[in-house]
Specification:
The chain has about 170 residues and is of the alpha/beta class. Helices cover about 40% and strands about 20% of the residues. The chain contains 4 helices and 7 strands, in the order βαβαβαββββα. It has helices spanning about 30-45, 65-75, 90-100, 140-169, and strands at about 15-25, 55-60, 85, 105-110, 115-120, 120-125, 130-135. The strands form 2 sheets. The chain has a 5-stranded mixed sheet with strand order 3-2-1-6-7. It has a two-stranded antiparallel sheet with strand order 4-5. It starts with 16 loop residues before the first strand and ends with a helix.
Length: about 170
């Protein structure tokens, strides 16, 4: 479910390159830095060359992070609603997607002071849904490395598209 309460599925990112992370709005440790770094990445990649790139931020606290809470959080970050999606859903589905889909830890943990454990990395996923890399979402160096790898991935995509066009002739 997106920040407007609308269903969001794999079909919504078909043919897109995904940069994903896990966070929660009440987090006081790594999430604020991760969100700012994702915001900076969104701003840095605000160009037609990146039109096939979508940012997905999944909450690990769906009980609190309702669509209205996510919408307010996204607005605070000046998130472009067409490119940066804030997503919620059932906790088991979110945790399963994090742990088995993106291979990032995402879970509720009553022993943790903030009640949730989630990975601090961003994940880059290509159009074929292959994970291309993990990047420290809390450090500028991680974001710089992600942007560099994304440029290489886009170049790879352009080469593949050209080869497909040439083969069709």
């Amino acid at each position: 479910i997106d920040r407007y309460g609308e269903p969001f599925t794999d079909k919504d990112v078909a043919g897109k390159i995904v940069i994903a992370d896990f966070f929660f709005t009440r987090c006081t440790t790594i999430c604020p830095r991760m969100s700012i770094n994702m915001q900076q990445l969104q701003l840095k990649l605000n160009d037609d060359a990146y039109k096939d790139v979508v940012f997905l931020s999944h909450t690990v606290d769906p009980e609190h992070d309702t669509p209205a809470v996510l919408d307010a959080y996204a607005k605070k970050l000046q998130a472009d609603p067409t490119r940066w999606k804030f997503l919620t859903g059932s906790a088991p589905d979110i945790y399963r997607m994090g742990n088995t889909g993106y291979l990032l830890s995402a879970l509720e943990d009553s022993t943790n002071a903030e009640q949730f454990v989630h990975d601090g990395r961003f994940v880059l996923v290509d159009k074929q849904r292959h994970i291309r890399g993990y990047y420290d979402g809390t450090e500028a160096e991680g974001v710089i490395a992600l942007a560099a790898d994304l440029k290489m991935l886009l170049k790879e995509e352009r080469i593949k598209a050209k080869e497909t066009r040439d083969a069709a002739r």
